[in-house]
Amino acid sequence: MGKIILYDPEKRLAGLGDSFSAGETADHRTLHTFTSEDQLLFYLEEVDEDVDILIVNLVRQKEKGAGLARMCKNRIHHLKLVLVIDRLEGTEHLFELQPDSLLFFPPDQDDFQRTILRLEQMAQQEYKRCLTLVTKGKIYRIPYQKILYVESRGHQLSVKTWEEEIRAYGKLDDLLKRLPPYFLHCHKSYLINSNYVRQLEMYRIRLEGKEEWIPVSQKYYKIIKNTLLAEAE
């Protein structure tokens, strides 16, 4: 928790270092500063370390900095993004990046510290409600409520959400330990989110928003049935 990356190609934000050693989460923060785009991307690729907050100094670096922020957000979807700008004029295109905060240069120390603390708290709350997966050089935080089911195919897991399918290597039972108790085995190769059960029959189950049936083994049928009946009481 508290991993922060600062992209500051002209070293204009060097004086903000004290802000990272203040606040209630300071002991858990790690800050990595980069002046080179290539070094930052290499760090994300090789170290493969989760990051909570990216701060990009766009002063005299608008296009290049915006492109870097876009690449980082494509790789780490949950990233909290702070953009440091010198003026609002000509920044309309930046809003497609969906920044979590805009700060004017030079940032006020107190405003900067409050911004970091707020984003850290947001990231911490989201982290508690998300499944984190690392796959193909990308890090995904998937909110539990978006997961419909998980299918295991050999050593590969396929996590099905409302919008997409995310694949990663792992074991189904190991994944189950990381999920809330409303995720249940319905088959040795499937986990389902019991909150989204639409129809249960012998040997098969259908989830909300899906027409296809998922197999249910005899071993798990009674467990799922009793769970659904208990929720209905």
Brief digest:
This is DNA-binding LytR/AlgR family response regulator. This protein has 5 helices and 15 strands.
Tell me what you see in this structure.
The chain folds into two domains: 3-128, 3-Layer(aba) Sandwich (Rossmann fold); 132-232, OB fold (Dihydrolipoamide Acetyltransferase, E2P), CATH 2.40.50.1020. 28% of the residues lie in helices and 32% in strands. The protein has helices at 37-47, 62-75, 109-128, 172-176, 218-232; strands at residues 3-7, 30-34, 53-57, 80-85, 101-104, 130-135, 138-143, 147-153, 156-161, 165-169, 183-187, 190-193, 197-201, 204-207, 214-215. A five-stranded parallel beta sheet has the order 2-1-3-4-5, sandwiched between helices. The mean pLDDT is 87.
List keywords for this structure.
233 residues, Rossmann fold, OB fold (Dihydrolipoamide Acetyltransferase, E2P), 5-stranded parallel β-sheet, 15 strands, elongated, phosphorelay response regulator activity, DNA-binding LytR/AlgR family response regulator, LytR-like, DNA binding
Helix content: 25-40%
Structural class: alpha/beta
What is the name of the CATH class of the largest domain? Alpha Beta
Detail the poorly predicted runs.
Answer: none
CATH architecture of the largest domain: 3-Layer(aba) Sandwich
Instruction: Report Rg.
Output: 22 Å
Annotated CATH topology of the largest domain: Rossmann fold
Organism: Hungatella effluvii
GO molecular function: DNA binding; phosphorelay response regulator activity
Keywords: DNA-binding
Protein name: DNA-binding LytR/AlgR family response regulator
